[in-house]
């Protein structure tokens, strides 16, 4: 009971929390959004929001890079902080440019933004490929 009420954070609990956040949000993003965009590429190419006016194809390619490529690396814990940067930028654009007004249907973007910003700040933790390599 004393440990449950403690405000101290052990290194092990920090590393487990980093693993849980990294893997949970990474797999949710990959399976629910990234793979869907890959499977329905043609549909998303014409319907994706284009806040920077660079065209549907380049915008979709940047989103796929963040939601598929970078997410796989983050789930594995390989180059985690570097791979978190495009994902954080992706969700910053979604939250602050695409979905400007807060709506209950847009809260998942805020949650993903907060989770991946946390991964960027915390790093991968000990239970990752980066942690095993000693980076």
UniProtKB/TrEMBL annotation:
Places the protein is found: Cell membrane
Keyword Transmembrane helix: yes
Organism domain of life: Bacteria
Keyword Membrane recorded: yes
Location, primary (coarse class): membrane
Transmembrane segments: 12-31, 52-76, 82-98, 110-129
Bilayer topology: Multi-pass membrane protein
Pfam families for the chain: DoxX
Keywords linked to the UniProt accession: Cell membrane, Membrane, Transmembrane, Transmembrane helix
Family to which this protein belongs: Belongs to the DoxX family.
Protein name as it appears in the record: DoxX family protein
Organism, scientific name: Niastella koreensis
């Amino acid at each position: 009971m004393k440990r449950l009420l403690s405000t101290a954070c052990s290194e092990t609990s920090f590393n487990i929390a980093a693993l849980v956040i990294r893997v949970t949000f990474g797999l949710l993003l990959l399976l629910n959004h990234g793979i869907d965009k890959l499977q329905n590429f043609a549909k998303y190419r014409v319907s994706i929001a284009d806040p920077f006016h660079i065209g549907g194809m380049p915008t979709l390619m940047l989103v796929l890079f963040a939601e598929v490529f970078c997410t796989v690396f983050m789930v594995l814990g390989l180059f985690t902080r570097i791979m978190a940067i495009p994902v954080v930028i992706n969700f910053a654009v979604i939250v602050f440019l695409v979905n400007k007004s807060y709506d209950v249907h847009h809260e998942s973007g805020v949650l993903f933004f907060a989770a991946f910003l946390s991964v960027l700040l915390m790093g991968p933790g000990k239970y990752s490929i980066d942690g095993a390599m000693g980076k």
